[in-house]
Amino acid sequence: MKDALAPSPRRPSPLRVLVTSYRSHPHVGGQGVYVRELARALMGEGCQVSVASGAPYPELDEGVTLEKLPSLDLFSTSNAFMALRFRHLTSRADRHEWAAHNTGAFGEMTAFALRLEAFLAAHPGRYDVIHDNQTLALPMARIARRTPLITTLHHPIAIDRDFAVAGAATRMGRILTRRWHSFVEVQARAARRLEHFLCVSEASRQAYHARCGVDPAKVCVAHNGIDHAVYYPDPSIARDEDRLVALASADVPIKGLDVLIDALHALKSRDRQIRLTVIGQLREGQAKRALERAGLMAQVEFVSGLTREAIAELYRRCTIFVSASRFEGFGFPAAEAMACGAPVIVSDGGALPEVAGKAGIVTPAGDSAALAEAIAGLMDDPERRARVGKACAQRARTAFRWEDHARAAIALYDEILAAREGAPLS
């Protein structure tokens, strides 16, 4: 592929890019973060950027146009079955979303793609290229035949599904979990029909090949960036001596919180009273039961509803940041903690070793004993902690930049546009 910094002389000026995302919550999960930062970086590279999204909608910079494609928002409705109105019957997207939701499936991706298809049909020629954020619905393949389209791949949801099914307590729970994740097979079929991908890690690229049959040759890898105006080291802030920080957005096995709890339990048995702050909510579930069994409730606190600035402050004060996930397509929390100068310990799940590079410490996913040894080793060696934290901050500063991600995307846009014109790339 051509140099991302050398635009094609045939590129429209300015390049009109539509970034699409079936939902883009600005504060929960990474979808809204990715959409906001990608749009900002593309605009910084001279593109004219619009975003088409279903609700929740992203927070966007001035100059980025938001095209709202509302869903039925059935998750916030007290009686989803009765939410269908006569006007919805004329909409294929509304019918699909309602039927999927009320039969225990998740149909938002296909419904969004159908709405996007109708929106583009009503505005032909408005955009030069579409950059989709992992919708992976079958209508996207039809859209791609009319307008150049690339898809960002984060990680295959089939991995989440398998962990969720394995973690279900009952047979009925496993059946319902599989039904809800029925969109996974649709995403795999859609991925095989699409041609151009930007993937946020090499681990994710290989996982999409293994899980969805995506040809790795169709996938360009470019790591996500970090907002370095928020996540940065502050040498004036003293680090705590005995506090771990982790982020667990959900009490599910894939996030590896159980592994970290087991590691803390092992350290407690050696009279090591290490405190843990988890960014997330403690609900009735596996994590709470594990903490109670291990007698760790007094050592572990959960905090939620924090601003990005408050999270960065935690990263600057913690002794060590830990990510014990069994799989991450990238791993924003680890990268952001590194950017704040925190020494990080990560598992080898998915892309986490790519994020840590040679700066952080890597342990086998699911291995609580190895994690306990790594934590104890860093806790007992302040000089080593300082070296690891400094190396982490340096890696994050150079390796995770949104402008680099945007330039990789623009190189793909140029490649596709040139191919459509039938002209060789220079």
From TrEMBL:
Residues 28-229 form the Glycosyltransferase subfamily 4-like N-terminal domain. The lineage of its organism: Bacteria, Pseudomonadati, Pseudomonadota, Alphaproteobacteria, Maricaulales. This is Glycosyltransferase family 4 protein. It comes from the Bacteria. It comes from Alkalicaulis satelles. Residues 239-391 form the Glycosyl transferase family domain. Signal peptide: none annotated. The keyword Phosphoprotein does not apply. Keywords: Transferase. It holds the Pfam family Glycos_transf_1. One of its GO terms (molecular function) is glycosyltransferase activity. GO terms for biological process: lipopolysaccharide biosynthetic process. InterPro entries: Glyco_trans_1, Glyco_trans_4-like_N.
